[in-house]
Automatic annotation (TrEMBL):
<keyword id="KW-0677">Repeat</keyword>
<feature type="binding site">
    <location>
        <begin position="11"/>
        <end position="18"/>
    </location>
    <ligand>
        <name>GTP 1</name>
    </ligand>
</feature>
<feature type="domain" description="EngA-type G">
    <location>
        <begin position="5"/>
        <end position="169"/>
    </location>
</feature>
<dbReference type="InterPro" id="IPR016484">
    <property type="entry name" value="GTPase_Der"/>
</dbReference>
<comment type="similarity">
    <text>Belongs to the TRAFAC class TrmE-Era-EngA-EngB-Septin-like GTPase superfamily. EngA (Der) GTPase family.</text>
</comment>
<dbReference type="InterPro" id="IPR027417">
    <property type="entry name" value="P-loop_NTPase"/>
</dbReference>
<feature type="binding site">
    <location>
        <begin position="188"/>
        <end position="195"/>
    </location>
    <ligand>
        <name>GTP 2</name>
    </ligand>
</feature>
<keyword id="KW-0342">GTP-binding</keyword>
<dbReference type="InterPro" id="IPR032859">
    <property type="entry name" value="KH_dom-like"/>
</dbReference>
<feature type="binding site">
    <location>
        <begin position="305"/>
        <end position="308"/>
    </location>
    <ligand>
        <name>GTP 2</name>
    </ligand>
</feature>
<protein>
    <recommendedName>
        <fullName>GTPase Der</fullName>
    </recommendedName>
</protein>
<feature type="domain" description="EngA-type G">
    <location>
        <begin position="182"/>
        <end position="362"/>
    </location>
</feature>
<keyword id="KW-0547">Nucleotide-binding</keyword>
<keyword id="KW-0690">Ribosome biogenesis</keyword>
<feature type="binding site">
    <location>
        <begin position="121"/>
        <end position="124"/>
    </location>
    <ligand>
        <name>GTP 1</name>
    </ligand>
</feature>
<keyword id="KW-0378">Hydrolase</keyword>
<dbReference type="Pfam" id="PF14714">
    <property type="entry name" value="KH_dom-like"/>
</dbReference>
Amino acid sequence: MAKLPLVAIVGRPNVGKSTLFNRLVGRKLALVDDRPGVTRDRREGDATLLGLDFRVIDTAGYEDEDPVTLPGRMRTQTMAAVREADAALFLIDARAGLTPLDEEIARWLRSETTPVILAANKAEGKAGESGVLESWALGLGEPIPMSAEHGEGVVDLFEHLRPYIERDGDDDADEGDEEGPLKLAIVGRPNAGKSTLINRILSQDRLITGPEAGITRDSIAIDWVWTAPDGQVRPVRLIDTAGMRKKAKVEDKLEKLSVADARRAVDFAEVVVLLLDGTRGLEAQDLRIADNVLKEGRALVIAINKWDVAEGQSALFNGIKAALEEGLSQARGVPLLTVSGKTGKGLDQLLAVAFETRETWSKRVSTGQLNRWFEEAIERNPPPAPSGRRIKLRYITQVSTRPPSFVIFGTRVDQLPDSYLRYLVNGMRKELGFGAVPVRLTARAARNPFDT
């Protein structure tokens, strides 16, 4: 596993270093108090800032004391942290203004080879404006006005940190636990053959089956190990669910509970296989189930079951494929396979596709690659200019995976039409390899990057 870049937070005591550290790591790992000198040892944590992953070091407040004293030894630890780091984040208190100690720290940082980013903390409101302006005198470039406590200024911090800690290729690995079992839920209308299919996969009569619809009531999870045709052994957690009928037809209380349980099973799954009945083709309820799976952000695979007894196979397959392209326009190209729970046809292929789909669903694109694609997409098709005022899109970042989720930052993004967002999503699917898994894309004004 690649070593994450290091960012050291430095500054005099009580400027908000630990508050910023806690915000970046997403937990209150560092003690925070109004009294100076609470932090003594270096504390490290894994941080994420709008898709950038790095290690952050919270250092003790830098004080001008004899090296043999406790503050002096703390300063030595701070200096060592900066020399190890890929970037140093120098925090000052904008409300207190510049102090002689701030100036001394700045002189020391200028003498080091580690890149320095200057941030004026506690800059919310008018009280911090003069301190932000004063900090230009430190000779460390443009200061970032921010509030670690309230989460303001993180977009500008992201922009300044990115050149130093972004590493193409390091952060495009799957976030998912590849050693963990594939959580695979089988869903569909009643009597589509879900339990029979799972029994065939397991090579045992693990689940009760029969011609009656609605035998399965509870969602049943079964841990199993799949030996792929190439000999690779991969763990799977198979989840059988109750058949999902059209909501208006579900009157029995027990069936309502069963369907609700099946929906919860979808929430906990990674990949969902929608099983169609090959003797009945595609029905409106199948499309509703598929749409719900995609809305929940799960990766979807569609399999036509009972293929061994299906009539007019070529016309049936092409007809279902065309209907899916039209009915699931938000995720064209969802894998469509043919299987038979009775004979075992296509089951290895189904499992292989499910693992491949999870890999795509868990994919992270490096920020550099993502923004290069973004710039080219905008150049090919610039956003519109409502009322003659141009919408300016600044950059894009991937904020999470499973499903892949992205945020665009810019100005007047509230006027960006849905059609343009669809253009970008379709481009990501085609050019960044996200295929037909759910992709979530939102746009935010640069000054208010996320709710805190």
